[in-house]
Amino acid sequence: MKACKLSEYIIQRIYEDAITQLKLQKSLYFIYVYFLVNKQKKIFNDKFQRWDYGPVIKDVYDKYKKYEKNPIEIPKKK
Protein backbone atom coordinates (compact mmCIF):
# COMPACT_ATOMS: atom_id res chain seq x y z
CA MET A 1 0.00 0.00 0.00
CA LYS A 2 1.16 3.53 -0.73
CA ALA A 3 0.81 6.32 1.82
CA CYS A 4 -1.19 8.40 -0.68
CA LYS A 5 -3.77 5.62 -0.98
CA LEU A 6 -4.04 5.34 2.82
CA SER A 7 -4.39 9.13 3.06
CA GLU A 8 -7.40 8.98 0.72
CA TYR A 9 -8.99 6.38 2.99
CA ILE A 10 -8.35 8.51 6.08
CA ILE A 11 -9.90 11.58 4.45
CA GLN A 12 -12.99 9.59 3.44
CA ARG A 13 -13.49 8.19 6.96
CA ILE A 14 -12.66 11.28 9.04
CA TYR A 15 -14.12 13.97 6.79
CA GLU A 16 -16.92 14.81 9.27
CA ASP A 17 -14.22 16.17 11.58
CA ALA A 18 -12.58 18.20 8.77
CA ILE A 19 -9.07 16.82 8.61
CA THR A 20 -6.19 19.19 7.82
CA GLN A 21 -2.84 18.41 6.21
CA LEU A 22 -1.18 18.45 9.65
CA LYS A 23 -3.74 16.04 11.16
CA LEU A 24 -3.43 13.80 8.12
CA GLN A 25 0.37 13.59 8.38
CA LYS A 26 0.20 12.84 12.10
CA SER A 27 -2.48 10.20 11.51
CA LEU A 28 -0.29 8.51 8.90
CA TYR A 29 2.63 8.51 11.34
CA PHE A 30 0.62 7.01 14.22
CA ILE A 31 -0.89 4.35 11.95
CA TYR A 32 2.59 3.51 10.65
CA VAL A 33 4.01 3.19 14.18
CA TYR A 34 1.01 1.15 15.35
CA PHE A 35 1.52 -1.41 12.59
CA LEU A 36 5.27 -1.50 13.14
CA VAL A 37 4.92 -2.12 16.89
CA ASN A 38 1.83 -4.36 16.96
CA LYS A 39 2.04 -6.23 13.66
CA GLN A 40 5.84 -6.14 13.20
CA LYS A 41 5.43 -4.94 9.63
CA LYS A 42 5.16 -1.70 7.70
CA ILE A 43 1.75 -0.68 6.40
CA PHE A 44 3.50 1.27 3.61
CA ASN A 45 7.08 1.75 2.44
CA ASP A 46 7.03 5.52 1.90
CA LYS A 47 9.70 7.34 3.90
CA PHE A 48 8.93 10.04 6.44
CA GLN A 49 10.90 13.27 6.41
CA ARG A 50 11.63 15.25 9.56
CA TRP A 51 9.99 18.67 9.30
CA ASP A 52 9.52 21.41 11.93
CA TYR A 53 5.96 20.32 12.78
CA GLY A 54 6.59 16.59 12.75
CA PRO A 55 7.04 13.69 10.34
CA VAL A 56 5.86 14.24 6.76
CA ILE A 57 5.49 12.01 3.73
CA LYS A 58 6.43 14.33 0.87
CA ASP A 59 4.18 12.68 -1.75
CA VAL A 60 1.14 13.12 0.51
CA TYR A 61 2.15 16.69 1.32
CA ASP A 62 2.49 17.52 -2.38
CA LYS A 63 -0.90 15.98 -3.15
CA TYR A 64 -2.75 18.13 -0.57
CA LYS A 65 -0.55 21.23 -0.16
CA LYS A 66 -3.04 23.42 -2.03
CA TYR A 67 -5.30 23.27 1.04
CA GLU A 68 -2.59 24.80 3.25
CA LYS A 69 -4.04 24.97 6.80
CA ASN A 70 -7.63 24.51 5.61
CA PRO A 71 -9.56 21.23 5.83
CA ILE A 72 -8.95 18.89 2.92
CA GLU A 73 -11.97 18.54 0.65
CA ILE A 74 -13.32 15.05 0.20
CA PRO A 75 -12.45 13.69 -3.26
CA LYS A 76 -15.35 13.21 -5.65
CA LYS A 77 -16.26 9.61 -6.47
CA LYS A 78 -15.87 8.68 -10.13
UniProtKB/TrEMBL annotation:
Protein origin, superkingdom: Bacteria
Pfam families, A to Z: SocA_Panacea
Domain Antitoxin SocA-like Panacea: 24-74
Alphabetical list of InterPro entries matching this protein: SocA_Panacea
Identification of the protein by name: Antitoxin SocA-like Panacea domain-containing protein
Organism: Spiroplasma phoeniceum P40
